[in-house]
Design brief:
By secondary structure, the protein is α+β, with helices and mostly antiparallel strands. About 50% of the residues lie in helices and about 15% in strands. Among the domains are: about 140 residues, Beta Polymerase, domain 2; about 100 residues, no CATH class; about 200 residues, Alpha-Beta Plaits.
């Protein structure tokens, strides 16, 4: 798939359109060939640029210079094209109307800037192009802010080509649409771009799109996860990883050029700044050896670049902190001419790196400039491990390298919570540095992070903390969502792994920053609340502040209706702002948790977690649900109906045998001293809690608490199980429980209406 092939497709389309135009004109204007005057068939958009992919539409406009009826002629023109199998996006416009449409809609203007003559009167096309280009340049200062907002909205909607899980070659940031807009910005004469670099990147993306059309067999701009192998074969690349590196690398390059160009547009559109008497821009001193010129950080005149190893980091930190452009030309010069930093780094260099990482949103464009110019490889060669590496989990919205930068941006807003912001930011930058191999990335990343921290000049104690943060960066989130936070064994295990209060504070901030940088769904109020509760309990242990244990029964008194009749059921519902908390009180019995979970299944209330405890003959259970509003009377009626046997929730679960979900049920004896912990992993679906609780009740076991979490398409549910009136299970009994749960989850189910 090459430029000559696109040229050939465009030439063939031109011949087809020209022949159809000639036939239509002859049918309507038999007087002679001179009758095409005042009428032209014009190609626009990608067809206008001669960039047709194998399944591209033909975007054409029939333009007439005079006020006359051309609809009949247009009909004679389009039908032969359709009959020939061409996909035609067409329009008929008077020349003044075309100019007016371009003036009122910036998207129309962009498409028409590439107008190209195909057939008819070339004078009409020439007038059209001249009018539109002059109009574009004349109104550029007023129209570019509108275009910038449209670009930002599009990128927000489609993500970035370099980082999106399913990248869109056309609409994503750094895609073909951005490349076209960059050329339109150049056409304003207000800014310039590196033409050779942009054109090389744009043509590569066109080759990829051509290959994608071949792979998909239809018009397509989105590359699905299953397409990379086939795409690599068509592009003659080694494998799917090579295809991803190619596409994401080009997307990042175009994104970088686009960001720099739009920043320069902002500078051009800003109120006029005073200029020096010379021809160059005004230089505003910033720091030793550095100045601002037209919104960019550059080297001051007369600076001895070769004498200052920290100059590159100083320039990067200033640009990020002040939201200025880090001039790529300046960075390239500094990479060539500044001496390498000594190892370990001097304190000034380490402090400048921390300032850079703490800069907030200004970090991203500066980091991209360091990456694109090769400076990042010089400062942090380990970055190549994760450069443009896709995440294995679809939960992540960015590639690994971009996720690390976003984590630093999120962590920069949390530095006041911790005593060592420098360690937090370094750990945020490196927490996923171990990804890309076959080992657990937390384990693989720990020695890499420790080596980097040592090179930065941190002492042994701080190196150990950074390594521990990388090693344990998933600990709090995993424990908070899958373990009983009221079990002392859980809290003590976390305390033992964390070690001290300072590290716990750092780990809590890193957990939040990591989740926020992953996706909006990764840091919900519910998840955040669980992590805060875990941190609070672990803090108490680490501070050796042994406060009296708060018992659930102290928090909920036995309702009068239950005191009078243990068969009665009392239900209380409390909105939490991010779901509901339901408390159910009734007489204690085996299978109660199964009954209540079944009732909640019937009212379609997804369960996030559940805890059960007893006070004498009275059983309490508290449920955290993912719905905002529930009628307690309806829940009570369903619970009573299930307990009385009038309703069987299992009958509402329609089984679909034939699939093999391979549920995983593991016994975790180390997780609790009072209970036996069963960890269940199965595809996310309705009824899991009910099926598990029912299976355990049928073999006479009580479920003291359940903790529900969803990771992508997988449910990770943890159940604390006890013998009725006793404690943890023996080995044989635990194995029996695990087998019972596996049998219950053997076939996937769906909930019937």
């Amino acid at each position: 798939m090459t430029a000559p092939e696109r040229q050939h497709r465009a030439d063939a389309a031109d011949a087809l359109c020209a022949a159809a135009f000639a036939r239509a004109l002859a049918a309507q204007r038999p007087q002679g060939p001179e009758d095409h005057q005042g009428l032209a068939l014009v190609a626009v958009g990608g067809y206008g640029r001669r960039e047709l992919a194998p399944h591209s539409d033909l975007d054409v406009v029939l333009v007439h210079a005079e006020e006359e009826e051309v609809d009949v002629l247009a009909g004679e023109l389009w039908y032969p094209l359709w009959d020939a199998g061409a996909q035609v996006d067409h329009a008929v416009r008077a020349l003044p109307d075309v100019a007016a449409a371009a003036d009122s809609d910036v998207r129309v203007a962009l498409g028409l800037l590439d107008a190209r003559h195909v057939a008819g009167d070339p004078a009409v096309t020439l007038r059209l192009r001249s009018t539109l280009l002059a109009q574009w340049r004349r109104g550029a200062r007023d129209r570019l802010p509108e275009l910038a907002e449209a670009v930002a909205r599009r990128v927000e909607r489609h993500g970035e080509l370099a980082h999106a899980t399913v990248p869109d070659l056309k609409e994503a940031g750094g895609g073909l649409r951005d490349a076209t807009i960059l050329n339109a910005l150049v056409a304003t004469w207000l800014v310039d771009v590196p033409h050779a670099d942009l054109e090389r990147s744009r043509r590569t993306l066109l080759d990829v799109r051509d290959a994608l059309h071949v792979v998909a067999g239809r018009p397509s701009d989105r590359v699905g996860p299953d397409m990379w192998d086939d795409l690599a074969a068509v592009l003659d690349l080694e494998d799917d990883a090579a295809a991803q590196r190619l596409v994401r690398g080009v997307g990042r390059r175009i994104t970088h050029i686009s960001r720099l160009t739009w920043r320069r547009v902002e500078d051009v559109l800003a109120p006029r700044r005073p200029r020096t008497r010379g021809r160059g821009p005004l230089l505003v001193p910033l720091a030793a050896g550095l100045a601002e010129a037209a919104g960019e950080v550059v080297v001051s005149r007369g600076t001895a670049v070769g004498d200052d190893p920290a100059l590159l980091l100083r320039a990067a930190a200033l640009a990020a902190e002040r939201n200025l452009v880090l001039s790529p030309h300046t960075v390239a010069r500094l990479v060539r001419e500044t001496p390498a930093l000594s190892e370990p780094w001097p304190a000034e260099a380490r402090d400048l790196l921390v300032r850079l990482l703490a800069a907030g949103p200004g970090l991203l464009p500066v980091w991209e400039t360091l990456d694109e110019t090769g400076a990042l490889h010089r400062l942090l060669p380990e970055w190549e491990r994760v450069r443009l590496l896709p995440h294995a989990s679809v939960v992540h919205r960015f590639t690994v390298d971009r996720h690390l930068v976003e984590t630093c941006i999120e962590a920069s807003g949390l530095i006041r919570r911790v005593s060592r912001p420098d360690l937090l930011l370094v750990a945020a930058l490196l927490h996923d540095i171990g990804k890309g191999g076959v080992r657990d990335h937390s384990v693989a990343g720990e020695p890499v992070a420790a080596a980097v921290a040592r090179r930065l000049g941190l002492d042994d104690a701080d190196v150990a903390v950074v390594g521990a943060l990388v090693r344990r960066h998933l600990l709090l989130a995993e424990v908070a969502t899958t373990r009983d936070l009221e079990d002392p064994a859980t809290i003590e295990q976390v305390a033992d792994r964390v070690g001290d209060r300072s590290t716990l504070d750092l780990l809590a901030a890193l957990t939040e920053a990591d989740a926020r940088a992953t996706s909006a769904k990764a840091w919900t109020p519910w998840r955040a609340g669980l992590v805060r509760e875990l941190v609070s309990r672990v803090t108490a242990v680490l501070d050796e502040a042994r406060s009296p244990e708060v018992r659930e029964e102290d928090l909920v008194s036995v309702p009068a209706v239950v005191r009078r009749d243990l068969e009665a059921v009392d239900v209380r519902v409390r909105p939490t702002g991010h779901g509901s908390e339901v408390t159910v009180v009734t007489g204690d019995r085996i299978g109660l948790l199964a009954a209540v979970s079944g009732a909640l299944l019937l009212v379609r209330a997804p369960i996030r977690s559940a805890r059960a405890w007893s006070q004498g003959e009275v059983a309490f259970s508290r449920w955290h649900l993912a719905v905002d509003a529930l009628d307690p009377a309806v829940v009570r009626q369903q619970v009573e109906a299930v307990l009385a046997g009038r309703v069987d929730p299992a009958a509402r679960l329609r089984r679909t045998p034939g699939r093999d979900p391979h549920p995983s049920v593991a016994v975790r004896p180390e997780a609790s001293r009072r209970s036996t912990v069963l960890e269940v992993r199965v595809e996310d679906r309705a009824g899991v809690v009910h099926l598990v609780c029912t299976a355990l009740a049928e073999i006479g076991l009580a479920v003291r608490s359940a903790h529900v979490a969803t990771v992508g398409p997988q449910a990770v549910d943890v159940f604390y199980v006890q013998e009725d009136g006793a404690g943890a299970l023996g080995d044989e009994r635990a194995a029996e429980a695990a087998h019972a749960v596996r049998r219950a989850l053997g076939d996937p189910v769906t909930l019937d209406v």
